[in-house]
Amino acid sequence: MSTLADHGHELIPRPEQNPDALRAALATVAPGRLEETQATKDEAFATRAEQTGA
What we know:
The chain is an all-alpha fold. Helices cover 56% and strands 0% of the residues. It is built from two helices and no strands. The mean pLDDT is 86.
């Protein structure tokens, strides 16, 4: 499956489901959100580390 624009054309091919591929896809379609995404990921990792006592 690919991401479709309103006019029905593919914006980019569906990326692989791994961090590097997802980051590259985001850089293509919404580069201004890269920093926000990184912060959200860092927060999720920190929360999980706290929950597991790591």
